[in-house]
């Protein structure tokens, strides 16, 4: 396994800044959230005012869960100012995309979603990461 140092991580984040999935990479890097947590994050779980978010952690081999399994639990993550700013920008972008798409928008309350509001497939996030790194 190859682990990036701080310089490499910041270089990746800077180079992916304008990508639609940037918020996913930023959240993973700055919070330690795993892919299923990032992709399952909903706006109702983000508390910008108090600089924190709540996420469901699962240990199932199939990824995201509704949090009702014995192997899952909820954790609270404190957010830094930069991450709060990025989430605010993301929220504005989601609202713009929602307005632009109109009735075709699928509002799943997802932080990380497509421009039509649909879920991002985990494999597509992986593909984007490999493409950008």
Cα separation of the termini: 15 Å
Low-confidence stretches: 60-65
**Overall pLDDT level:** 89
What is the helical fraction, as a range of percent?
40-55%
**What Rg is obtained from the alpha carbons, in whole angstroms?**
15 Å
DSSP strand count? 3
The biggest sheet, with number of strands, parallel, antiparallel or mixed sense and barrel status, is: 3 strands, antiparallel
Shape: globular
Count, helices: 5
Strand content: 5-15%
Element pattern in H and E: HHHEEEHH
Structural category: mainly alpha
Strand order of the largest sheet: 1-2-3
Structure description:
The protein has 133 residues and is mostly helical. The protein has a domain at 6-39 and 78-132. 44% of the residues lie in helices and 11% in strands. The chain has a three-stranded antiparallel β-sheet. Strand 1 (46-47) and strand 2 (52-57) form a beta hairpin. The longest helix is centred in the last third of the chain and has 21 residues, at 81-101. 19% of the residues are buried.
């Amino acid at each position: 396994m190859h682990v990036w140092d701080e310089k490499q991580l910041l270089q990746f984040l800077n180079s992916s800044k304008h990508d639609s999935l940037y918020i996913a990479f930023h959240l993973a890097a700055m919070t330690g959230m795993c892919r299923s947590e990032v992709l399952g994050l909903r706006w109702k779980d983000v508390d910008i005012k108090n600089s924190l978010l709540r996420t469901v952690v699962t240990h199932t081999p199939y990824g995201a869960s509704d949090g009702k399994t014995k192997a899952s639990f909820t954790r609270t993550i404190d957010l830094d100012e930069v991450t709060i700013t990025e989430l605010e920008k993301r929220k504005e972008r989601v609202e713009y995309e929602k307005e632009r798409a109109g009735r075709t928008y699928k509002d799943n309350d997802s932080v990380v979603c497509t421009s039509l509001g649909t879920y991002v497939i985990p494999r597509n996030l992986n593909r984007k990461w490999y493409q950008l790194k």
